[in-house]
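Holo prediction — NAP.
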Amino acid sequence: MADHISIGLMGLGVVGTGVAIAVQEQAETLSQRIGTPVRIERALVRDVRTRREGISEDLSLTENPDDILKNPKIILVIEAMGGEHPAYDYILAAITAGKHVVTANKEVMAKHGPALLQAAADKGVMLRFEASVGGGIPIIGPLLDDLAANDISAVNAIINGTTNYMITRMASEGIDYAAALREAQALGYAEPDSAADVDGTDAAFKLAILASLAFRTIVSDTDVFREGIRRLAPEDFHYAEELGYVIKLLATARRTDGRVLARVHPAFLPASQPLAKVDGVYNAIELEGDLVDWAMFQGPGAGARPTASAILADVVAIGRAIINSAGVPQAPPLDQALVIETLDDLETKYYIRLRASDQPGVMAQVTQVLGDLNVGLASVIQKEVGENGQTAEIVITTHVARESAVQQALTHLMALDSVNEVSNLIRVEERIA
Ligand SMILES: NC(=O)c1ccc[n+]([C@@H]2O[C@H](COP(=O)([O-])OP(=O)(O)OC[C@H]3O[C@@H](n4cnc5c(N)ncnc54)[C@H](OP(=O)(O)O)[C@@H]3O)[C@@H](O)[C@H]2O)c1
């Protein structure tokens, strides 16, 4: 056994740099907690000539993955490159070469997690991924270990900091989607290509990971319904407040009677709920379990130091297992046979905002369409809008209804001559703890 643990670091961007700096800063602490020092042997980058602020000159950089994957001294690989390929291929190659792996990569874990975990188990190495969801928030550990005695029935989360920042600003400042996005990009919270955030893909990856672990089944990213925040308008925030709600990009998965429904979309949450109060770039994850009842984990969902905190916790866990020669703990099998439901099966309340001609009888037509499909009205707000008062904005909230019926109702509403547009439909979630 060497006198230290040699690490290969793949990626030296926001996260990788945070890890490299934290390994230096926390060298003493890590050594104490593990029982032996850790050292980054090589770091893989795309371009070794890039100037890297804060990185020690002693750190040996390479553009060749084999300098890590085929290096017998390196027993632990940290993957912090991002993207599906080649990150997935390198993780698999590291496992196949008998190296332990820590990854921050939600896309790889959402798409290939079960296969990679199986490969790691077959090879007798550990694959840990605390940083893949919620940045610095401990959530994978609690799901795998601390709450292991529970049957988890629901995961409700705000797990995309970019959109939560934008939504928070839209609510507090009354700005529109485009202005909120510009602001998030100027502050570095949103990438120049923000599609993965604003369209809900990033949150769907994370929810797939959480739901798989929570329900001990395989929920892949394609099983998660997703709808982003592009359609949210200042009016929606205004009506939400008037009705006592807060809008959030909700990631939620629920297990009911052997079925799982996982979805990411904007939602009205009652303003008094804990998740409704999670603002800005913060993330939070709520779990419902039969023993614990309810637990919420909240903190910074991204950033160099919080993410390094999660990655190094995994390094400590692996380091301890290596030092203690205690055998390598593996994640529990994801073998529960659950049926993945589609959104059509959802039953919840809805907010519908539409524009119609401001004429007598229009409201009666709208309520008739909804009533025919058993969509009951809980409240109606009607306001005159437009220059000459010929258009009315109608805002409806419904009682609990079936998604398929509501979607059918929207199609019928759009076909009415008197309805100019259905401006938005937002699900109202009152079941969230
Ligand atoms: N940013 C966060 O706050 C955060 C939080 C939690 C999880 N994560 C996850 O952590 C991962 C990394 O994110 P990041 O923000 O640190 O990304 P980033 O800043 O874009 O850094 C990516 C790094 O990987 C290197 N890289 C990328 N592709 C490569 C390839 N094919 N070969 C060699 N090197 C390659 C890049 O090299 P060059 O420097 O030479 O370009 C760069 O150093 C992602 O999976 C992300 O989802 C990020």
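READOUT: The longest strand covers residues 245-256.
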